[in-house]
Automatic annotation (TrEMBL), chain A:
UniProt keyword annotation of Signal present: yes
Lineage: Bacteria, Pseudomonadati, Pseudomonadota, Alphaproteobacteria, Rhodobacterales
Residue spans crossing the bilayer: none
Protein name: ABC transporter substrate-binding protein
Signal peptide: 1-19
Keywords, comma-separated and alphabetical: Signal
UniProt-listed PANTHER family: PHOSPHOGLYCERATE TRANSPORT REGULATORY PROTEIN PGTC (PTHR30006:SF25), THIAMINE-BINDING PERIPLASMIC PROTEIN-RELATED (PTHR30006)
Origin species: Parasulfitobacter algicola
Automatic annotation (TrEMBL), chain B:
Subcellular location: Membrane
Domain of life: Bacteria
SMART domains: HATPase_c, HisKA
Protein name per Swiss-Prot or TrEMBL: histidine kinase
Lineage of origin: Bacteria, Pseudomonadati, Pseudomonadota, Alphaproteobacteria, Rhodobacterales
UniProtKB/TrEMBL annotation, chain C:
Domain of life per record: Bacteria
Domain Response regulatory per the UniProt entry, residue ranges: 2-116
Keyword DNA damage assigned: no
Residues with 4-aspartylphosphate modification: D51
Pfam name, any one: Trans_reg_C
Chain residues forming the annotated DNA-binding region: 124-220
Protein name: Response regulator transcription factor
Keyword annotations of the record: DNA-binding, Phosphoprotein, Transcription, Transcription regulation
Domain OmpR/PhoB-type stretches: 124-220
Length: 342, 454, 221
């Protein structure tokens, strides 16, 4: 017994996250360079570029390196490889909280940070700058002749009643790879038992697993899959080109609300630039009306208005629970057992 | 406490000092009490967290499985934004969590608390244990939950500010009350002091003011003292009066007898002797008179019995009384017209001083001359000027005449003690003024100027 | 003049009586307040000499007694006390003047004269000497209705001579009576005053004769 536990521990320590690799690095150059800012982020570069450009209008001497990675790679880069970044932007709230909890984030105080309401920041280290829905995106084509579901239960019913039409045409995050997917899944499981029933149905019809929201949306619009579950609503809404092919649902039983957040690592080389960028980001995020430079749902827009169906993910140590090794193993085991039935 | 400073200040200082000490003690008690409460509540929530984890430890397939409930950590986050650390061990083997997190010593007890340092922060840790059977073996699982103490510190800081506010408020209010109380306690004393200082110089009646019991001995002592002072003063006045009477009456007898005798004696040498005798009697009686006058003046100058009087009338009155003496030597006493000058003076002393100056002038003036008395009003003082047509002062510095028993060089044949001008000078100095002596510029004669401040 | 002397010291009282009788005054002596009150009620006095300290009471009560019995006899207080303490009380209670012990008799006379002049006015008291009208209090001699004011010494000299007409006064006697003891004057000074007085009297039938080696004498021709 003891030996097997020990083996498990060694396994856990030896095989954790894949080594950090830069997926893509975009450099926003300036004419006269007086400093550089390295931003590591999970957000798509296309979405984030306007924010960086408007930042450079105000600070024309700062060259910005934008490094796009997954949320787990951020953890690896910061906690294990000690890579130096100035700003960390992630949609994985639990990992951001863990970074701050374990002492990797520096507190930041400014007029801009004061704009952020108490529920939008933690320990003055992690600052939310969006509030985004976890949405269900449907292919209008695939649902022809069917009532469009408004709740998870309705989706379960439709999937059960039409197993052939949806066979292997359901997509969701591979929560083993995607930090955001894991966050959405754990929060769903925490909120309602319906998550497991839905997973059960997903497993029965056969589910495609994705790394990212954008790919799922692409596949829905292409007709490859009919249902994409727990997609970032903001990404789908942003896709005006495919608006007539897809249908975005904010489930009425409950809609998880995620906050994208930024933090400044304690070992940031360019603290001053990092502070300036953070202030710029927070000012855009928390002022009304929404600036054209800000591509995300604004923190102050009506979309975030309090409503019974909205379940915002609260920042706090509770998020650490599902990062626990046991907890994660158990959750992934259960998830695999339901989703990967065949 | 070495110097007997103000009683009121001493009492106030002691009361305020006690208030300060009480306030400090209050703050410290409040702080230690609230620290304990705050620490207790943090401990309770940490223990609740640890217990909820313990309750979710199970054995599956002969392995220990820990299913941390979401609330175990979220309950910690609901109270403060403090960082949370944990570790779960099977005896000394880490199952999950932060491997370097320090653990409190936990032996037989089911839980233990400790304050440690971790990741550059102060943390409060709790360990709780559970014994479970795994594959027929007894295993001990220890759950350790830790939380930083920033929330607690913030809470204590806020409490400290509050406590400080309460303490300072308490201190200020008690100080004000102390000052009010002290003032109230000392009011009878002040009233007594006011009634003592408000009294006239000759009012030595006992005090009958109602005073608190504690002050009764003081008032008694004061009354007995004023009584003794009164008796002593009247005794010394009586003594002076009695002495004067005793000395002067026999002198008067002898002098009168000598005068009678002189009328009857023909022989020149006997007449000379008799005249010398009369002169000696006059001199000694005058000296005695002036000494007594000076004693009385000294008694009175300590506390002047000032009244608002018409200075002109006062001087005219004094000078007119000397008219018969002046007329004996055919000396004209000329009083310049006196304007009405009201002054705040002791009239008896001023009249006595003027009498002494004019009497002195009469003594040194040749017969059939003139002495004039004027009052001159200046912006800051009133001058009383007495001019004669005598030989004037022979001293280089006439001011020496103001000394006691100093007599002018011209006065060897005159009867006098040399105290007249001294007495006058004393009186005017006691009034804030003085005497100025000089010889007249035009013609001969002396000039005495006495001045009073306005 | 008629005086009432209120004085408890017998020796002093006797001496004063002797001294004043030399000048031709009449003196009654009371040793206590009681007898003083009896005296004042039974006879008319020109002036009272009142000692302030008496065995049976304070001289001040005598003053109030006088005022109560509506006697307007002038009073000169005789005091052995300090001027400073006594002065006000004595004058306030109605004494006309006061004099301190021991006193020069010429000062006493001068004060008496001043008091009487103040109280009676000058007019009432004239005396005819030959063709001259003499007013002691006013200090004037008038001849045919024309007043001549005499200086004090001249007046005193005239008084002495006129009170005893035809009597020869030696220079030394006149010096004794005219000058106080602290004035060292030669007998020749008298001649000056005699000369002045003769000038005032010229035109009248009153003459002052010089008796060589003897003195002076006033007579009416």
């Amino acid at each position: 017994m003891c030996r097997s536990i020990l083996a498990a521990i060694i396994l856990a320590l030896a095989s954790p996250l894949p080594a950090f690799q830069i997926q893509e690095e975009t450099v926003f150059e300036v004419d006269k360079k007086a400093g550089a800012l390295r931003i590591i982020s999970t957000a798509d570069i296309d979405l984030f570029a306007p924010i960086i450009k408007s930042f450079q209008v105000q600070n024309p001497m700062i060259e910005v390196h934008y490094i796009g990675v997954t949320s787990t790679e951020i953890m690896t880069a910061i906690t294990q490889e000690n890579e130096a970044f100035d700003v960390v932007i992630s949609s994985a709230m639990d990992l951001q909280i863990k970074l701050a909890n374990d002492g990797y984030a520096a507190p930041h105080f400014s007029a801009a940070s004061d704009r952020v309401p108490g529920w939008g920041k933690w320990r003055d280290s992690v600052f939310a700058f969006t509030q985004e829905h976890a949405a269900i995106v449907l292919s209008l084509d695939a649902f022809q002749g069917l009532d469009l579901p408004k709740t998870r239960q309705a989706l379960i019913t439709i999937l059960r009643e039409n197993p052939d039409r949806f066979r292997n045409r359901v997509g969701t995050y591979d929560i083993r790879e995607s930090g955001l997917g894991y966050l959405f899944a754990t929060q769903d499981a925490r909120t309602s038992e319906v998550f497991w029933r839905l997973s059960e149905v997903f497993g029965q019809v056969g589910t495609q697993l994705y790394c990212c929201s954008s790919e799922m949306i692409d596949d829905v619009s292409a007709g490859d899959i009919a249902v994409a579950y727990n997609v970032l609503g903001s990404y789908a809404t942003a896709r005006a080109d495919i608006a007539d092919k897809i249908h975005i649902i904010q489930p009425e039983d409950f809609t998880t609300l995620m906050m994208r957040s930024a933090l400044l690592p304690v070992n940031a080389p360019n603290t001053e630039g990092a502070g300036l960028f953070m202030d710029h980001l927070l000012t855009l995020a928390w002022s009304a009306p929404r600036s054209a430079d800000f591509p995300f749902p604004n923190g102050t827009t009506d979309e975030t208005a309090n409503s019974a169906k909205l379940r915002p993910i609260r920042m706090g140590p509770g998020l650490l629970v599902f990062l626990d090794r046991f907890k994660r193993d158990q959750f992934l085991n259960a998830w695999e057992a339901t989703i990967l039935q065949n | 406490m070495t110097s007997p400073a103000s009683l009121r200040r001493r009492l106030a200082t002691q009361l305020i000092g006690s208030a300060a000490i009480l306030a400090a003690v209050l703050i410290l008690l409040f702080l230690s009490f609230s620290r304990q409460i705050a620490q207790n509540s943090q401990d309770n929530i940490l223990l609740a967290s640890a217990t909820s984890i313990l309750e979710n430890i199970s054995v599956r397939n002969d392995e220990i499985v820990v299913d941390i409930p979401y609330s175990a950590f979220s309950m910690l986050g609901s109270v403060s934004n403090d960082r949370v650390f944990y570790r779960i061990d099977n005896d000394d083997e880490l199952l999950t969590g932060y491997s370097d997190l320090p653990r409190p010593d936990i032996q037989a007890a089911t839980n233990a608390f400790a304050t440690r340092s971790y990741l550059d922060a102060d943390i409060r840790t709790v360990s709780a244990l559970k014994v479970i059977a795994v594959n027929q073996r007894i295993e001990t699982v220890i759950v350790t939950i830790a939380q930083t103490q920033e929330g607690l510190t913030d809470q204590l800081n806020a409490l400290f500010k509050q406590a400080l506010g309460i303490g300072v408020g308490f201190f200020i209010i008690s100080s004000i009350l102390a000052i009010i109380a002290v003032n109230r306690v000392f009011r009878p004393l002040q009233d007594l002091a006011t009634s003592v200082s408000g009294r006239g110089p000759n009012d030595l009646e006992p005090f009958n003011t109602a005073v608190p019991d504690e002050m009764v001995p003081l008032v008694h002592a004061l009354n007995s003292f004023t009584g003794r002072l009164d008796r002593s003063l009247s005794r010394s006045e009586d003594f002076i009066t009695e002495a004067a009477h005793r000395v002067r009456t026999p002198l008067a007898t002898v002098r009168t007898q000598a005068e009678v005798f002189l009328r009857r004696v023909r022989q020149d040498n006997n007449r000379t002797t008799l005249k010398d005798m009369i002169r000696a009697i006059d001199e000694s009686s005058r000296a005695a008179g002036q000494l007594i006058d000076q004693a009385m003046v000294n008694l009175r100058t300590d506390v002047l019995d000032r009244k608002e009087v018409n200075l002109g009338e006062c001087i005219v009155d004094a000078v007119q009384r000397l008219q018969p003496i002046a007329s004996l030597r055919d000396i004209d006493l000329k009083l310049a017209p006196m304007d009405v000058h009201f002054a705040h003076i002791d009239p008896i002393l001023i009249q006595n001083a003027i009498t002494n100056i004019v009497d002195n002038a009469i003594k040194y003036s040749p017969p059939e001359t003139e002495i004039s008395v004027q009052i001159i009003s200046e912006s800051d003082k009133i001058i009383i000027r007495i001019l004669d047509q005598g030989p004037g002062f022979c001293q280089d510095d006439p001011r020496t005449l103001l000394g006691r028993f100093v007599r002018g060089q011209s006065s060897t044949d005159k009867i006098g003690s040399g105290l007249g001008l001294t007495i006058a000078n004393d009186v005017f100095i006691a009034h804030g003024g003085g005497l100025r002596l000089y010889n007249r510029q035009e013609g001969t004669g002396a000039c005495v100027e006495a001045f009073l401040p306005r | 003049m008629r005086f009432l002397l209120v004085e408890d010291n017998e020796k002093l009282a006797q001496a004063i009586q002797d001294r004043m009788e030399l000048d031709g005054h009449v003196i009654d002596h009371a040793a206590t307040l009681n007898s003083a009150e009896e005296f004042i009620l039974s006879a008319q006095y020109d002036l009272v000499l009142l000692d302030i300290m008496l065995p049976d009471g304070d001289g001040r009560s005598f003053l109030s007694f006088l005022r109560k019995s509506q006697k307007d006899t002038p009073v000169i207080a005789v005091t052995a006390r300090s001027q400073v303490s006594d002065r006000v009380g004595i004058l306030d209670l109605g004494a006309d003047d006061y004099i301190s012990k021991p006193f020069d008799f010429s000062e006493l006379e001068a004060r008496c004269r001043a008091v009487l002049r103040r109280r009676n006015g000058a007019a009432s008291n004239t005396q005819k000497i030959g063709t001259i009208e003499f007013n002691r209090l006013a200090g004037t001699v008038s001849l045919n209705g024309v007043d001549t004011a005499l200086r004090n010494k001249e007046l005193r000299l005239f008084e002495i001579l006129a009170d005893h007409p035809n009597i020869i006064f030696s220079k030394s006697k006149l010096v004794d009576r005219l000058f106080s003891y602290d004035e060292d004057v030669s007998e020749n000074a008298i001649e000056v005053y005699i000369g002045r007085l003769r000038k005032h009297l010229s035109g009248s039938n009153v003459v002052i004769t010089t008796i060589r080696g003897m003195g002076y004498r006033l007579s009416v021709e």
